[in-house]
Amino acid sequence: MGKHSVRISAYKELFAKILFAVSASAAILAVGLICVFLFMQGLPAMWDIGILDFLTGTDWRPTWNPPRFGILPMIVGSLYVTAGAILFGVPIGIFAAIFMAEVCPMPVYKVLKPAINLLAGIPSVVYGYFGMVVLVPFVRTNFGGSGASILTASILLGIMILPTIISISESALRAVPRELYEGAVALGASHERAVFWVVLPAAKSGVMAAIILGIGRAVGETMAVRMVAGNQAVLRMPYEFLSGTRTLTANVILELGYAADEHRAALIATGVVLFVFIMLINALFSLLKKKDGA
């Protein structure tokens, strides 16, 4: 009976290992298939258009003869909107995480934590509708312009990345051994100094992960940005934050439904550029983690 039980346990362990291996392989296979599809469809289009013309061109005119496919305005628009979202979302998210992990009373925490989780589950189109109804009129009234602008999209994306940054940063702060905080307080540090100079640096890796994931969310967001950014494929200068713009993701979703032939290939090539951006963000995060570990 004992040998039989050991054999059953061994079979269960083997089955679990196979199941986990298949699950991990499925995820890797999915990423690999996406890479193969994007690069097989997009790289030839970039080569036909001209890589420099495609990346640095300022005209996106698929209906012209000959058509022009320059995505520099969309690249710059994506960078502006993402940078604005970081400016709005990252400081608020980190301070909110510190408040929840180190300051927040438990009765308030029991209300605040589910509210943040609920914020993470709201669909993008609802955020977009909120931006159209609330943020666009607010920006138009208080700052000028049409309201559908880089500033509006930045504020909206900053709100959208808050749940990711707050939740992961809070978990990182709570994972720091309490002995570090207690030792700092024992040496004479105030509560605030111990939190900001001891606990927060110790949680730096987790906080950086939260920021990188928030940036990835901001770069990849489509529907909400499409609804509030103005969708103007024009190269914007740094001071034109009250003007409309078009991001890479919005460019794809706006035109892929009716695009054909070279136009469709150019949109897929736009997806390749977006994919490379995400890969660079992940590579940067890996480098920062290695540097931190060293």
Summed up:
The chain is 79% helix and 1% strand. It has helices at residues 2-49, 51-56, 72-103, 106-121, 124-142, 150-175, 178-186, 191-202, 204-220, 223-228, 248-255, 261-293; strands at residues 60-61, 68-69.
N- and C-termini, Cα separation: 51 Å
Biggest sheet layout: 2 strands, antiparallel
Oligomer classification:
single chain
The stretches of 5 or more residues where confidence is low (pLDDT under 50) are none
- Provide mean pLDDT, rounded: 86
Helix fraction, binned, reads: over 70%
Name the CATH homologous superfamily of the largest domain: MetI-like
Structural class: mainly alpha
Strand content: under 5%
CATH topology of the largest domain: MetI-like fold
For the record, the CATH architecture of the largest domain stands as: Orthogonal Bundle
Number of helical stretches of at least 4 residues: 12
Provide the CATH top-level class of the largest domain: Mainly Alpha
Using only C-alpha atoms, the radius of gyration works out to 24 Å
**Number of DSSP strand runs:** 2
Number of domains: 2
**Side-by-side strand order of the widest sheet:** 1-2
What order do the SSEs take from the amino end to the carboxyl end, as H and E? HHEEHHHHHHHHHH
Shape: globular
